[in-house]
Amino acid sequence: MKKIICLLMLSSLSFAGKHKPLKTVDYVDLDRYLGKWYEIARFDQKFQRGCTATTAEYKKMKKKGNIKVINRCRLNSPDGKLKKGIGRAWIKNKKTNAKLKVQFFLRRIKLGFLAGKYWILALGENYDYAMVGDPSRKYLWILSRENTLDPEIYNQLVEQAEKTGFDTSKLLKTLH
C-alpha cells in the first residue's frame, strides 16, 4: 500500500511540474473588462461542441466582487438553435484581478471545486482583445470586442500561447 501511495505522489509531482507557472497580465480594470466579448478561437470543449457565433457577456452583480457571466452561441445545426449558459465569476487574486473562478453548475452557491480557473493571459491596451486560459493548459479562448480580430494580433496571441505551453494545434476558429 505504501508503494502505491508513493507512486501516486510521485506521478502527481511530475504532472505538476510539466509546465512552467502560467503568467497572467499584471492588472485588469474589471470595469473596463465588463461587457460583451466575441469568441475568436477556442480549444473545443464538450460544453461548446457545435457552437458558432459565440459571445460572452460579463456584468457586475449586486454582491461586490461577483460577476454574472452569460455565454451564448448558435448551434451549427439546421435549426441554428440558440444555446445560453449563465454563470458567476469571482476574483481569486485581488492584487491583479487577472485570476478568476467561473462557475456555471449550482452557480448561486459559491463552490470553488465546481468552478473553473479563468486566467487573463493577454489583454489589449484598450481592452479590445483578450486571451484567457487555465494553468492545466486544457482551456484557451481568444476574445475580441468585435467579431473579427486583426490577423497580426491573433498570430501574436497564438505565439504567446504556444510559448507558454498550450498546444495551439487544438485552436478552433469561431465562425460568426
What does this structure look like?
The chain is globular. It has 176 residues and is an alpha+beta fold. The protein has one domain: Calycin beta-barrel core domain (Lipocalin), CATH 2.40.128.20. The N and C termini lie far apart (54 Å). Strands 1-2-3-4-5-6-7-8 form an eight-stranded antiparallel β-barrel. It contains three helices and nine strands; from the N terminus they run H-H-E-E-E-E-E-E-E-E-H-E. The model is unreliable at 1-16 (pLDDT under 50).
Short description:
By secondary structure, this protein is α+β, with helices and mostly antiparallel strands. The protein has one domain: Calycin beta-barrel core domain (Lipocalin), CATH 2.40.128. 18% of the residues lie in helices and 37% in strands.
Give me some keywords for this one.
single chain; globular; 37% strand; alpha+beta; 9 strands; 176 residues; Lipocalin
Strand-and-helix sequence, N→C? HHEEEEEEEEHE
Helical residues, percent: 10-25%
The CATH homologous superfamily name equals Calycin beta-barrel core domain
Radius of gyration: 17 Å
| Neighbour order of strands in the largest sheet | 1-2-3-4-5-6-7-8
Low-confidence blocks of residues: 1-16
Beta fraction: 35-45%
- CATH C-level name: Mainly Beta
Kindly report how far apart the N and C termini lie.
54 Å
Mean pLDDT level: 85
Number of strands: 9
**Number of structurally distinct domains:** 1
Would you give the CATH topology? Answer: Lipocalin
Backbone shape: globular
Tally of individual helices:
3
Class by helix and strand content? alpha+beta
The biggest beta sheet reads: 8 strands, antiparallel, barrel
